[in-house]
Specification:
Layout: E1 2-6, E2 9-13, E3 24-29, H1 31-40, E4 46-51, H2 56-64, E5 69-71, H3 74-80, E6 89-93, E7 99-100, H4 103-110, E8 117-121, H5 127-139, E9 144-147, H6 157-162, H7 166-172, E10 176-178, H8 185-194, E11 198-202, E12 209-210, E13 221-225, H9 233-236, E14 242-245
Parallel strand pairs: 4-5, 7-10, 8-9, 8-13, 9-10, 11-13, 11-14, 12-14
Antiparallel strand pairs: 1-2, 2-3, 3-6, 4-6
Helix pairs in contact: 1-7, 5-7
Length: 246
């Protein structure tokens, strides 16, 4: 078994699992992320569940799914999780693979009578920020969250932990989707605008900015969240009837 650091997340390569994405597996840590992963089973394979005392509900859930369960020490979990807040729970599993967005689905959403809300995440880099946003997306019942694969933080264990496992639920429900590599955020937002969505980009402040609390949710809307440093590159270059909100 070979170990490597990928995107600051400790991963393992285990050829015995049958996972076909380069054999790479992640170490998911924390009670909520692991519990959600075992509940929804969105990941293509699971290697083993490691527990430090207790957590009988997780042990039963894993055993019912045929996933090996091992009892171990806090020290061992500290080492395996790279000293992350594991809460005595660690799951070796394949990475999440959300579905790819089909642009025609946006047109279908625009035909619904109830106002639809799409959150577009444009090249977010910070896994803690990404996870927190995905947690909010799940909590507030956003209809669809679309994120770019290029120049974005991967859906790593750190993201799942920051989302309190919400990322697993969003993927399971098909509410978190990747943009296909053949397209980009500008094209997706253009498609949405052409389908009748209003496109709103977040901003710190300045002229022409509207407070989010004053925006009526009476129309299909795409809310664009951009990069932590430069904002939304796609939004900046859009030639669409857009608004900015704070």
């Amino acid at each position: 078994m070979l170990r490597s650091l990928v995107g600051s997340e400790m991963c393992i390569r285990d050829r015995s699992t049958g996972y076909d994405d380069g054999g790479m597996m992640e170490r998911l840590y924390g009670a909520h992320p692991v519990g959600a992963a075992l509940l929804h089973k969105c990941r293509s394979s699971f290697n083993r569940l490691l527990l430090q005392g207790g957590h009988e509900d997780l042990a039963r859930r894993a055993a019912d799914a045929g996933i090996p369960v091992e009892r171990t020490s806090k020290h061992q979990l500290d080492v395996l999780s790279n000293h992350r807040p594991h809460q005595g729970v660690l799951l070796e599993c394949a990475p999440l693979q959300p579905a790819l967005l089909n642009p025609s689905n946006i047109g279908s959403m625009a035909e619904r009578s109830e106002p639809q809300l799409i959150v577009a995440l444009d090249e977010l880099h910070d896994p803690q920020n990404l996870g927190a946003i995905l947690r909010s997306v799940a909590w507030f019942g956003v209809d669809l969250c679309v994120m770019s694969q290029k120049n974005s933080a991967p859906l790593s264990p750190a993201v799942s932990k920051a989302s309190a496992g919400a990322v697993e639920t969003l993927v399971a429900e098909g509410k978190l989707q990747f943009l296909p590599r053949s397209t980009n955020m500008v094209k997706m937002l253009t498609t949405a605008a052409d389908s009748g969505f209003r496109v709103m980009g977040t901003a710190v402040g300045g002229a022409g900015v509207t407070c989010a609390s004053s925006v009526e949710r009476d129309a299909h809307t795409v809310a664009v969240f951009g990069n932590e440093g430069v904002g939304s590159v796609s939004y900046t270059h859009l030639t669409l009837p857009t608004k900015r909100i704070v």
